[in-house]
């Protein structure tokens, strides 16, 4: 058969399979392999084995994705052993989705390269754990959906270069003075419900318009540009973070600082 041309014909066969975290289900199909003369070249027992292998291969992509626990790139490897920083992706109801490590951001490109970890200064990490614990008590099954954590200044320079001189510049800190993200004291996040759906906050992450600003919420609610549900979702997140000791950034609903920026810049070292 090594030289024969062949094709796969999918007909009916019952194959029971189990995916991680999912109930068992049945694939209703049958595989038959025939050569170019129409001669049968594979019978059902082997066909079932083939389908089992295919199901196992695809199970990894169908199964829920876990937070990335790979090592940081060499230049930032020290973060893994520095007692001043912690990777918060091990918190059970925290889901890490670093937007700048993908193309799902306003730049439409990955600016983090191989850096996929969510590190925070230990002070910020402890406060996030408090927020996560409170969320678990108030909304079982919900998760904190994290978009950005510690952001090296080298990445800050890339972001600022894009927005410099535009109406978006106020939303990105000048890397010369640094963002609180560059110190590991800031976090960008939203909420995910028990079904795994990101809550509607009225705008997406990094929406550089007044609609994303907490200090305009009442105005836009009255104008019908934000709904009561969207405002309520923001309030749930805000209450969690404020109670845990974070400070809300007035121009971004998703951004919270663990300490006032003046204190951070005076007492702590920036991460290059």
Question: How would you describe this protein?
Answer:
It is a single chain. This protein has helices at residues 44-62, 122-138, 153-163, 217-222, 228-243, 261-267, and strands at residues 6-17, 25-35, 40-42, 85-87, 94-96, 119-121, 143-148, 186-192, 247-248, 255-257. It has 272 residues and is α+β, with helices and mostly antiparallel strands. The chain has two domains: 6-62, no CATH class; 74-267, Muramoyl-pentapeptide Carboxypeptidase, domain 2. The radius of gyration is 24 Å and the shape is globular. The model is unreliable at 1-34 and 46-66 (pLDDT under 50).
What descriptors fit this protein?
272 residues, alpha+beta, Muramoyl-pentapeptide Carboxypeptidase, domain 2, five-stranded mixed beta sheet, three-stranded antiparallel beta sheet, 6 helices, 19% strand, globular, disordered N terminus
Describe the protein's topology.
Blueprint: E1 6-17, E2 25-35, E3 40-42, H1 44-62, E4 85-87, E5 94-96, E6 119-121, H2 122-138, E7 143-148, H3 153-163, E8 186-192, H4 217-222, H5 228-243, E9 247-248, E10 255-257, H6 261-267
Parallel strand pairs: 5-7
Antiparallel strand pairs: 1-2, 2-3, 4-6, 7-8, 8-10, 9-10
Radius of gyration: 24 Å
Helices and strands: which structural class? alpha+beta
- The general outline is globular
Helix content: 25-40%
Order of helices and strands: EEEHEEEHEHEHHEEH
Number of strands: 10
Quaternary class: single chain
Main sheet: which strands, in order across? 5-7-8-10-9
- Most strands sheet: 5 strands, mixed
Which second-level CATH architecture of the largest domain applies?
2-Layer Sandwich
**Helix count from the secondary structure assignment:** 6
What average pLDDT do the residues reach?
81
CATH class of the largest domain: Alpha Beta
Low-confidence stretches: 1-34, 46-66
Beta-sheet strand percentage? 15-25%
CATH T-level topology of the largest domain: Muramoyl-pentapeptide Carboxypeptidase, domain 2
State the domain count. Answer: 2
Instruction: Give the N-to-C terminal Cα separation.
Output: 59 Å
């Amino acid at each position: 058969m090594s030289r024969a041309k062949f094709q796969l014909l999918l007909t009916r066969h019952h194959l029971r399979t189990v995916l991680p975290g999912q109930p068992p289900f049945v694939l209703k199909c049958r595989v038959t392999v025939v050569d170019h003369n129409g001669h049968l070249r594979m019978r059902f027992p082997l066909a079932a084995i083939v389908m089992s292998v295919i199901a196992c291969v695809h199970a990894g992509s169908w199964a829920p994705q876990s937070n990335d626990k790979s090592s940081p790139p060499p230049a930032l490897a020290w973060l893994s052993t520095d007692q001043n920083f912690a990777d918060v992706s091990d918190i059970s109801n925290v889901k890490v989705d670093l937007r700048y490590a993908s193309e799902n951001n306003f730049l439409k490109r990955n600016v983090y390269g191989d850096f996929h970890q969510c590190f925070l200064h230990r002070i910020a990490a402890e406060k996030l754990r408090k927020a996560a614990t409170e969320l678990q008590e108030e909304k079982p099954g919900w998760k904190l959906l994290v978009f950005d954590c510690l952001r090296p200044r080298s990445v800050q320079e890339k972001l600022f270069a894009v927005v410099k001189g535009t109406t978006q510049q106020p939303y990105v800190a000048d890397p010369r003075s640094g963002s609180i993200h560059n110190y590991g004291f800031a976090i960008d996040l939203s909420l995910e419900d028990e079904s795994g759906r990101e809550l509607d906050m009225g705008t997406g992450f990094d929406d550089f318009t007044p609609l994303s600003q907490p200090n305009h919420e009442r105005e836009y609610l009255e104008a019908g540009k934000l709904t009561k549900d969207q405002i309520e979702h923001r309030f749930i997140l805000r209450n969690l973070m404020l109670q845990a000791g974070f400070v809300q950034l007035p121009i971004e609903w998703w951004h919270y600082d663990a300490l006032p920026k003046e204190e951070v810049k005076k007492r702590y070292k920036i991460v290059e």
